[in-house]
Amino acid sequence: MPADSHVHSEWSWDALMGSMTATCAKAAALGLPAIAFTEHVDFTPFRAGELKDTYPQFVGDDGILRAPEFDAEGYLDAVAEPYALYSEQAPEQVLGDYLAEIPRMMAGSSRFDVCTHIDYPLRTWPRHARPFDPGGHEDEFRLALRAVADGGRAVEVSARIPLDPLILRWWIAEGGARG
Question: Is 131 exposed, middle or buried (0-12, 13-18, 19+ CB in 10 A)?
């Protein structure tokens, strides 16, 4: 069985009924080789639960775990949701800029093992635009995929919104590991 590279637990705001412990046990019982927890906690306070003993400096009297203060100067100017950019730029440009950022991100940090949402701009591709054709962005996708593979990392493949099979073939061709 392949690894599940996009799992949330009770520490993520969108999976409050989840359980990291139970998820790990279930993954082991199913024979999954690995799972990657991808929590949504950057800006969202949540109940500390078991983490209150590990990170007491981040837990308030109300039992809410809050991430350390984030120095956001310039961050919001540098990051924008693709759907917000489509009114200012052609969808092809938004996708190209997004994919061009991936090799820079891979080179800039070794603190993660999984590149998630390599197709993120496609999730909100404008209806008024030409239908998305992966072949029109082959070089950009291959460069991004090669950077991920060269870094020894994995690409997340979502079952809910699957990657185009052509992009998956490029992943393998660029040195990406299967499963």
Answer: exposed
pLDDT at 95: 94
| Distance separating alpha carbons of residues 82 and 48, to the nearest angstrom | 32
Residues 133, 63: Cα–Cα separation, whole Å: 48
CA distances from 18 to 8, 57, 63, 153 (A): 7, 24, 18, 26
pLDDT, position 13: 59
Mean pLDDT of 140-148: 97
- Count CA atoms closer than 13 A to 32's CA, side-chain side: 17
Which tens digits make up the pLDDT trace of 159-176? 667 788 999 999 999 999
Helix-, strand-, coil-residue percentages of the chain, each rounded to 5: 40, 10, 50
Q: CA 77, CA 66: separation in Å to the nearest integer?
A: 23
- Bigger pLDDT: 132 or 46? 132
Tokens at residue 88, please? 């200012």
Rounded to 5 degrees, φ, ψ at 36 are -125, 115
C-alpha dist (Å) from residue 82 to 94, 101, 127 = 7, 13, 14
What does the pLDDT look like over 120-129, one tens digit per residue? Answer: 898 889 989 9
Question: Which residues, in sequence order, are CB contacts of 141 under 8 Å at separation 6+?
Answer: 99, 118, 134, 167, 170
